[in-house]
């Protein structure tokens, strides 16, 4: 018997932006009833391929078929009619509308007497959509804009799951979700697979891909390098396929142990939304801050960076009192910040890379009254770009033209450009490929070897355990006493409600997990 026709095939997909190829004949074939991973380094062409399937970007050439029949996708409407649904960070949501209105966007609202919008019915239906993912903390009536990133993603996912589709395309859906929320999403994705529909899943989280997905297509430099069952390939081989070289270890070893000198002290310092905070960091120390989204992690780093009112207590940076009146004052004091929402807060996307990097360092660059020239700015930016392995045509390329992961690298390049004494990183590896992650961790190690202290806010627990000297898991605006990664597994088990020790947990932490798992 002939095998069933693929649910979707996109063959020889080609797309260039202003003559620069993003896809050079990539192939993607998704069978019915499978969860298919689309993998590749930052800039490999994954988002471009997805945008072509969504009808948002027109390919230069492509042969697209569903169930073996050629189809044309020339608008978001045609993609929708073919049963394709997209969950993508950048696709339509309206923050000023309610959660329920966002869930029903583009669909017919429930009506009374066939004319009037049935608002109660709309909210009820929206609640049912949220219930499917077990979400009970989001009110369908509240404005979408009042929710955090993770909750907004849950709303997007609920909306996409509202009607039965053929193929759900998800771009980094778990990037802003907690471990518990991710598990609930995976359960729903497996239900989708069992019903015969399929999922195209883009993620840089390899452990997730290896446990969830059946097959993978790997893109490199706009070409499909390989495609096949994940059961036939090891984690390390998948990494090598993606980046074209071997990554020996996930985390670089510390170059030196943290020093004895104190780098930063918070003494009962107070800011709205947080209980009084006290802790100290040594030079070269990396403090990890974890917690469910909205537990106060952002408030903490923003206040240290001069972005929030300080209502009590004090901070010390090195030997001097530190009370930045603004982020600019924090930069001047040697504190650098990589914000969580890079497009909204970290970048001027319609300006070139070099301007984005030098923006915070103009004074430093225009040394001793010399005028800063675009040439010197570009040279400075090119050096830093090489340090963070930025994939771009050059320092003059506009940031909007970069892939998501490369935009993140621009923000990081700016943060390290001024040789900071205290580096505040919020989700620095979100959306960043596995090779570049290692590079970012290496940069953290280099900085700490030079004596910088780092506060790393992350929802990536392996990363926290792999890179941090001490970890605090925040709860309801409180920063508990800091613990070592080894004892942190205990807290992880109670907060993230896991059934057993996850595969990534180092052996040193496993026994502690087993003893305390709920
Ligand atoms: N609007 C655009 N204008 C110019 N070039 C673009 C544009 N969008 C993407 N590109 C380029 O196309 C290439 C592929 O980018 P794409 O966003 O598809 O990569 P990706 O695999 O999704 O990466 P990431 O994992 O970082 O999101 C990159 O070199 C990027 O710079």
Supply database-style keywords.
518 residues; alpha/beta; Rossmann fold; six-stranded mixed beta sheet; five-stranded parallel beta sheet; 19 helices; 21 strands; 22% strand
Largest sheet: 6 strands, mixed
Assign the CATH architecture of the largest domain: 3-Layer(aba) Sandwich
Strand runs, count = 21
CATH class of the largest domain: Alpha Beta
Strand-residue proportion: 15-25%
User: Ranges with pLDDT <50 over ≥5 residues?
Assistant: 493-500, 512-518
CATH topological fold name of the largest domain: Rossmann fold
Structural class: alpha/beta
The first-to-last residue Cα distance is 49 Å
Provide structural commentary:
The protein has 518 residues and is of the alpha/beta class. It has 3 domains: 8-243, 3-Layer(aba) Sandwich (Rossmann fold), CATH 3.40.50; 249-334 and 419-482, P-loop containing nucleotide triphosphate hydrolases (Rossmann fold, 3-Layer(aba) Sandwich); 346-418, no CATH class. Helix content is 34%, strand content 22%. It is built from 19 helices and 21 strands. The protein has a 6-stranded mixed β-sheet, sandwiched between helices. Strands 18-19-20-15-21 form a 5-stranded parallel β-sheet, with helices on both faces. A hairpin with a 2-residue loop joins strand 1 (8-17) and strand 2 (20-30). Helix 14 packs across helix 15 (404-417). Residues 17, 22, 40, 42-48, 401-406, 433 line the site of adenosine-5'-triphosphate.
């Amino acid at each position: 018997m002939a095998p069933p026709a693929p649910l979707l095939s996109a063959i020889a997909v080609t797309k260039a932006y202003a003559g620069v190829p993003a896809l050079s004949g990539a192939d993607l074939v998704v069978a019915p009833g499978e969860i298919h991973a689309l993998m590749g380094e930052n800039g490999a062409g994954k988002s471009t391929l997805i945008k072509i399937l969504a009808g948002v970007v027109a390919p230069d050439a492509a042969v697209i078929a569903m169930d073996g029949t050629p189809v044309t996708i020339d608008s978001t409407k045609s993609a929708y009619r073919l049963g394709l649904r997209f969950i993508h960070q950048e696709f339509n949501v309206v923050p000023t509308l309610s959660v329920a209105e966002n869930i029903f966007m583009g669909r017919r609202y429930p009506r009374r007497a066939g004319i009037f919008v049935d608002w109660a019915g709309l909210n009820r239906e929206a609640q049912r959509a949220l219930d499917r993912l077990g979400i009970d903390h989001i009110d369908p009536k509240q404005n979408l804009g009042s929710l955090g990133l993770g909750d907004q993603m849950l709303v997007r996912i609920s909306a996409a799951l509202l009607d039965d589709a053929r193929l759900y395309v998800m771009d980094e859906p778990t990037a802003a979700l907690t471990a518990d929320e991710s598990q609930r999403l995976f359960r729903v994705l497996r239900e989708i697979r069992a019903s015969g529909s399929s999922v195209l899943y883009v993620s840089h989280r390899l452990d997730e891909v290896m446990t969830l997905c059946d097959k993978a297509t790997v893109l490199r430099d706009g070409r499909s390098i390989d495609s096949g069952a994940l059961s036939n390939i090891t984690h390390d081989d998948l990494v090598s396929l993606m980046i074209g070289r071997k990554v020996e270890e996930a985390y670089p070893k510390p170059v030196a142990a943290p020093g004895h000198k104190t780098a930063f002290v918070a003494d009962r310092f107070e800011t709205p939304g947080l209980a009084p905070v006290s802790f100290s960091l040594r030079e070269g120390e990396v403090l990890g801050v974890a917690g469910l989204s909205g537990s106060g992690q952002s408030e903490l780093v923003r206040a240290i960076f001069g972005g929030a009112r300080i209502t009590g207590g004090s901070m010390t940076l090195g030997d001097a009192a530190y009370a930045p009146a603004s982020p600019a004052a924090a930069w001047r004091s040697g504190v650098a910040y990589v914000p969580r929402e890079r497009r909204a807060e970290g970048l001027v996307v319609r300006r070139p890379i070099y301007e984005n990097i030098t923006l915070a360092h103009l004074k430093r660059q225009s040394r001793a009254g010399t005028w800063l020239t675009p040439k010197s700015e570009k040279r400075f930016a090119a050096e830093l770009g090489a340090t963070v392995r930025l994939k771009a045509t050059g320092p003059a390329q506009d940031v909007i033209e970069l892939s998501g992961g490369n935009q993140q690298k621009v923000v990081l390049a700016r943060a390290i450009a001024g040789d900071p004494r205290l580096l505040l990183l919020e989700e620095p590896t979100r959306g960043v490929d596995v090779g570049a992650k290692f590079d970012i961790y290496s940069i953290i190690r280099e900085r700490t070897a030079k004596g910088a202290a780092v506060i790393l806010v992350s929802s990536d627990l392996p990363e926290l355990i792999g890179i941090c000297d001490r970890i605090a898991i925040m709860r309801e605006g409180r920063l508990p006493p800091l613990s070592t990664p080894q004892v942190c597994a205990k807290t992880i088990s109670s907060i993230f409600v896991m059934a057993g020790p996850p595969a990534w947990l180092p052996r040193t932490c496993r026994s502690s997990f087993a003893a305390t798992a709920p």
